[in-house]
Structure formats: structure tokens, C-alpha cells
Amino acid sequence: MMTFARRCGIGALLLGLAAADYTQPLFGAPGDAWPVKHKLLGKDGGKAKDVSGIACAKAQGFPRSCLVIYDNVQEAQFVTVTDGKLVAGSTASLIGDKLDGEALELDGEGVAFAGGRYYVMGSHGHPRDKKGKLTGREIKARISASSQIIRFRTKGEDGTASEIERTPRLREIIAAEPLLAPFMDKRLENNGLMIEGVAIKDNVLLLAGFRGPVLDGNRAIVLSARIDTLFGGSGTDHRLFRLPLGNGRGVRDLAVFENGILILAGPAGNGPGVYAIYACDGESEEVRRLAELSSFDPKRKPEGLLPLDRTPSGLRVPDPL
Q1: b/e per residue 304-316 (b: at least 16 CB within 10 A)
Q2: Which of 48, 63, 178, 314 is deepest in the core (most CB within 10 A)?
Q3: Average pLDDT, the chain
Q4: Is 152 in contact with 95 (CB distance < 8 Å)?
Q5: Which of 241, 238, 247, 320 is nearest to 287 (CA)?
Q6: What is the pLDDT of residues 245-282, one digit of tens each?
Q7: Residue 142: which of 158, 155, 129 has the closest Cα?
């Protein structure tokens, strides 16, 4: 594992993978951090302090056209990933929600690519408010802004976003699920609901991975719903998976790898905890632990999962800082 670059303070995690059946052990010596060329843009045009997710338009090879997202802006940013470097490019405006003329952040926490489209997931959760300064009206507006899924196509060499679609329907599905509805709009520190991962399976199903709540102390949640139900459809049909990822662990990211799903698991709360990577089939509650992550800077916690490539030996694991 490695962050994009220590010098840029990016919290995303790149994972080099091999072995489609996940039977090979994790191995590898720590590697160098990848430099970032140009600036990853954060709030008010400043430099991004962390990244919440990354996905690429192709699963193998370099260079790759990819998209990164942040949790405190309304935009996403195109990047080019080569083997050892990330080049920042143009941005794409995803939402325009405002309250009293002030932009409301999407709180983007997950991104996936399938069927020629990028999918960006809002957190669907209570905004961060450590000092309790937000009013009820502000909290409601921020939850509404973050309770969206955005998808779009790209055109041109510069990766311009086109055919942008937005849907709030996942919130309706969550509200119809008895195991999740009681946790809606609660603070994360109170085991509140927060989505931090998204993956697309077979170009048909969207999988949403929940950082919280953790059920029964050790069951993380992944919700599956049809894409055509979320975008333009009706009803609340879905499946709920309760995954045994360990005590207090929720889903911190999801990524498709060949015919399966990779899960970055980590503490549901903001305190210390152990991160790990699991594999599942996206169709059952069976999971397989691939590795626990220990050697990374605690100030730059793993946030995003990106399969890189295959090697004959197994799973290539660079430095998790």
C-alpha cells in the first residue's frame, strides 16, 4: 500500500493486487511514496489535505484515467495514474446545493467506474460538527446535500464530465430498511449512519458500504440495489449484507477486482483501530481476510482502495503510509 504522496498529505491508499481467487498471501517490502504532479484541489481552490476515494476507467495497465474525490467540496478531479506517479488534471462540478448562498459540500466518500460512467457516492450521514455549532436547519441541509449519488460520462482528452445525473433515491431505500432506519441522521460517534464505499457489480447492482452503523458490535453493512432502481426507477427493493469484519470495524472503501469485491475495513469511529482488507463475492455474507494493515502514518489513515496490477507471485503491497 502507499499513499499518493507523503509530501501532499493524501490519505488515499493504493493497493497492488494479483491472484483472482485471492489465495495468494500478501507480501512485499515498503516502497516509495508516489509523487503528485500539479495540485489536487481542495476547498476554496486550496490544496487538498486528503482524498476520500479513487476509481479508474480501466482495470489494468498504465497510464490510467481516473477520478479522485474529497469530502469537503462539490467537485471531483480527474487524474492520470502511471506506475509510480499521479498527475492531477481538471475538475468536474457534481452538485450545486446551497444554503443562504453558501455552497454545501457533497461529502463525497466513494467513487466507482462501470459501463462508461463514474459513480460518486455522498456520505448520506450527519455532518461533522465536533463543536456542536451547526443549527438544526444547517444539519438538515447538509444531510440533504450529501444524500446523493452522482453519475456521469466523460468526453474529450481532458476528461470533461457530460450527461450528469443525480439521485437521492438511496436515502429512500435506507429509510425502508428496518435495520438501518434507526441510525439515519445520527452522529457517527453515536454509531450513526455513514457511507464510505461504493462499487458496481456486473453493471447492474450498486453496492454501498457503510462505515456506520456497526451492528451487534462486529457486523459491517453493505447494501445492494439495482442501478435502474436508483436512477429513474421506483420501489425500495434491495439486499442487505451483514459482514463479519471484526469488532468495531466498518467499511472504509469498496473496489471491484475481477469477479469479486475488495473491502477496506477500519474503525467505525474516529479513534484508533486496526485496518484490514477483505474479499467477498458481493452475493453473500462470506468474507476472506487478506491482510491487516499496521505500518502507516496514523495521521494519514487509509481511505481509498485501487487495484493496480497482477504479479505471478501474489499480492504486491507497497508502503501503506
Answers
A1: bbbbbebeeebbb
A2: 48
A3: 86
A4: no
A5: 241
A6: 999 999 999 999 888 999 999 999 987 788 999 999 99
A7: 129
CA distances from 113 to 21, 66, 257 (A): 22, 9, 12
Burial of 96 (0-12, 13-18, 19+ CB in 10 A): exposed
By C-alpha distance, which of 104, 195, 180 is closest to 149? Answer: 195
Q: Give the model's pLDDT for residue 296.
A: 64
Q: Which residues pair with 206 in a beta bridge?
A: 200, 225
82 with 67: CB under 8 angstroms? no
Q: Give the whole-angstrom CA distance, residue 11 versus residue 234.
A: 37
Amino acid symbol at 182? P
Q: How far is it, in rounded angstroms, from Cα 311 to Cα 319?
A: 17
**Cell numbers placing 279:** 474479499
Name, in order, each residue with C-beta under 8 angstroms of 154's C-beta and a sequence gap of 6 or more. 57, 65, 78, 118, 160, 161, 162
Q: Which residues sit opposite 15 in a β-bridge?
A: 307
Residues 6+ apart with CB under 8 A from 297: 3, 6, 321
pLDDT the model gives residue 314: 56
What does the alpha-carbon distance between residue 146 and residue 151 come to, in Å, rounded to a whole number?
Answer: 14
Which grid cell is 171?
436515502
Using CA atoms, how far apart are residues 166 and 173, in angstroms rounded to an integer?
Answer: 15
Are 104 and 98 in contact by the 8 Å Cβ rule? The answer is yes
pLDDT average, residue stretch 12-39:
52
Amino acid residing at 121 = M
pTM of the shown model? 0.90
Q: What is the DSSP letter of 283?
A: S
Selection from 170, 268, 262, 158 nearest residue 210 by Cα: 268
Distance of CA 8 to the CA centre of its chain: 19
CA distance 318 to 321: 9
DSSP 49: S
Per-residue model confidence as pLDDT tens digits over 92-110: 999 999 999 999 999 999 9
